[in-house]
TrEMBL record:
<feature type="transmembrane region" description="Helical">
    <location>
        <begin position="155"/>
        <end position="181"/>
    </location>
</feature>
<keyword id="KW-0813">Transport</keyword>
<dbReference type="InterPro" id="IPR036259">
    <property type="entry name" value="MFS_trans_sf"/>
</dbReference>
<feature type="transmembrane region" description="Helical">
    <location>
        <begin position="357"/>
        <end position="377"/>
    </location>
</feature>
<feature type="transmembrane region" description="Helical">
    <location>
        <begin position="131"/>
        <end position="149"/>
    </location>
</feature>
<feature type="region of interest" description="Disordered">
    <location>
        <begin position="1"/>
        <end position="28"/>
    </location>
</feature>
<feature type="transmembrane region" description="Helical">
    <location>
        <begin position="291"/>
        <end position="317"/>
    </location>
</feature>
<feature type="compositionally biased region" description="Basic and acidic residues">
    <location>
        <begin position="1"/>
        <end position="17"/>
    </location>
</feature>
<dbReference type="GO" id="GO:0016020">
    <property type="term" value="C:membrane"/>
</dbReference>
<protein>
    <submittedName>
        <fullName>MFS general substrate transporter</fullName>
    </submittedName>
</protein>
<feature type="transmembrane region" description="Helical">
    <location>
        <begin position="329"/>
        <end position="350"/>
    </location>
</feature>
<keyword id="KW-0812">Transmembrane</keyword>
<dbReference type="Pfam" id="PF07690">
    <property type="entry name" value="MFS_1"/>
</dbReference>
<feature type="transmembrane region" description="Helical">
    <location>
        <begin position="193"/>
        <end position="212"/>
    </location>
</feature>
<feature type="transmembrane region" description="Helical">
    <location>
        <begin position="224"/>
        <end position="244"/>
    </location>
</feature>
<feature type="domain" description="Major facilitator superfamily (MFS) profile">
    <location>
        <begin position="64"/>
        <end position="474"/>
    </location>
</feature>
<feature type="transmembrane region" description="Helical">
    <location>
        <begin position="452"/>
        <end position="473"/>
    </location>
</feature>
């Protein structure tokens, strides 16, 4: 049985491919197992029927997915809290001037960049649930301390530490997605937990509206907001420690039989579970793979847009469009709901069409249209509603990020190679976010027209890059298909810790 050619005219249905190949028993020779996490929980002769597969997925979604969602919600709340506080008096109360507010965003992302390489290496070594749980509790503690700060330098220092700690969550959640879910399930899973970016807008908007009314108190309203969110982070971190298993073989909440089946259900991913050993050959291959550099720049370009729009959304609605502070807080809530719907809708379309990169490219069009509207329409009482709608549709670029991450998660194999690839991808994500707020210079306020012109150039570069990534993956699949003509795929290298280059059975998806 050979795979169908995955070029633009003949795209294989990934779910059907799973059903055809994952459950095919091999001829009986001993398979090579290199993964240190698998242990005794593998049997390549097992046949998993669809009913059993659905039951296993329900178990996983009960124990794993809620914790992933909680973790990302905590991260989104922590990162975005200053955006809400920015129109609650934060800048005046702390003495921020010029680019000080933009620096609070940049410094956080510098902390994330510094933490990414060690965090990704620790992801390879440490139990994932415990690692992210401790990180979440610690960053909640840092945020709690920041809630009492009224000094710009102290806030900047704490934002850097917050970034260091939050560098853990992205790599851990992506590794968990690969460890527990099949290829065709991963886009919905990654987009599912990233919808918490939208939930953050809803929750922060409600809390900001409430705390804005705090008067004649020892602390300002924005300080109470930060302290409350820090407490939520600590509670969610503690819950993850007790509820989420570190991996299928380590899941004490599941039976021995189910642990085995959960390992076998992801065999067709050809990406294994986990290998704590550093492989120099894989590291060398990673640095020679152009795909990894292309994914890095894709994340940079994406977050140059989304990071700035996210950090300055409240200020744009308030100062550029002319809505008052209270209405600006409330208007961020439908924006969050729209973002959540957008992320899930785009990932669903990508899963159904099997055309992830084309969906990513399609999401760029509303952003281009919305940017043109903001550039050409003058704010006023009669136009601010239209400007707000244009700004809402510009959130489409936000839905690209989880899809780009799934392009990375599904097209890189080999545990050491994945560590480097994911580190590069998240450094690109962090780097773009770090620079993004600097594209909004204070002297360009309140409409930031020059910022929007810069965004137009970024859109062009992004579109060209994503087309190039797709062409590269199509070319690689054609070479793979030619090499395995006449072969029957049994995925016997699934846990042999082979890279996508080394494993003839590996199929690229895009």
């Amino acid at each position: 049985m050979s795979s169908r050619d995955l070029d633009g005219s003949d795209v294989a249905d990934e779910k059907a491919l799973d059903q055809q190949l994952e459950y095919a028993p091999s001829p009986g020779e001993e398979e090579v197992i290199v993964d240190t996490e698998v242990g005794k929980y593998t049997d390549h002769t097992i046949v998993i029927d669809e009913a059993t597969n659905k039951r296993l997925l329900r178990l996983i979604n009960t124990r794993v997915l809620p914790c992933m969602i909680m973790c990302y919600l905590a991260q989104a709340l922590d990162k975005g809290v200053l955006g809400t506080a920015s129109i609650m008096g934060l800048q005046a109360d702390t003495g921020m001037v010029g680019q000080d507010y933009a620096l609070t965003n940049t410094v956080l992302w510098i902390g994330v960049i510094v933490g990414e390489l060690p965090a990704n290496r620790l992801v390879q070594v440490l139990p994932l649930a415990k690692f992210v749980s401790i990180s979440l509790i610690l960053w909640g503690c840092v945020l709690f301390i920041m809630g009492f700060m009224r000094n710009v330098k102290a806030i900047l220092a704490l934002r850097f530490i917050l970034g260091l700690l939050e560098s853990v969550s992205g790599p851990v959640l992506l590794a968990i997605s690969v460890m527990w879910y099949k290829l065709h399930e991963q886009p919905l899973v990654v987009s599912g937990y990233q919808t918490m970016i939208g939930a953050n807008s809803v929750i922060s908007g409600l809390l900001g509206y409430g705390f804005y009314h705090v008067m004649n108190s020892t602390l300002y309203g924005w300080q109470y907001l930060i302290i409350l969110i820090s407490g939520l982070s600590i509670v969610m971190g503690a819950f993850i420690w007790f509820w989420m298993p570190d991996s299928p073989p380590r899941a004490k909440c599941f039976t021995e039989e189910d642990k085995l089946l959960m390992v076998e259900r992801i065999r067709a991913n050809d990406q294994g579970l986990k290998n704590t050993h550093w492989n120099k050959v894989q590291a060398s291959e990673a640095f020679r793979d152009p795909l990894i550099y292309m994914l890095f720049f894709a994340m940079v370009l994406n977050t140059l847009i989304t990071g700035g729009l996210g950090s300055f959304s409240a200020l744009l609605i308030n100062q550029a469009f002319g809505f008052d502070v209270l209405n600006s807080q409330l208007l961020s809530m439908p924006l969050g709901v729209f973002s959540m719907s957008l992320l899930m809708g785009s990932s669903f379309i990508a899963s159904r069409t099997k055309q992830t990169i084309y969906v990513i490219l399609g999401l760029a069009i509303p952003n281009i249209v919305g940017t043109i509207v903001l550039l050409t329409v003058t704010p006023g009482l009669t136009t601010r509603g239209g400007l707000l709608v244009a700004f809402y549709i510009m959130q489409c670029f936000q839905a690209q990020s989880p899809l780009i991450l799934t392009v990375a998660s599904r097209n890189i194999a080999g545990q050491t190679k994945k560590v480097i690839a994911f580190a590069f991808t998240f450094i690109g994500w962090s780097g773009g976010n770090a620079i993004s707020s600097q594209l909004f210079q204070s002297q360009w306020a309140p409409r930031y027209l020059i910022s929007l012109y810069i965004h137009c150039g970024i859109y062009v570069l992004f579109i060209l890059l994503m087309f190039s990534i797709r062409m590269l993956l199509v070319h690689r699949n054609k070479a793979k298909n030619k090499a395995r003509e006449g072969m029957t795929q049994h995925h016997e290298n699934a846990f042999a810790d082979k890279t996508d280059w080394e494993n003839e059975e590996f199929t690229y998806v895009y």
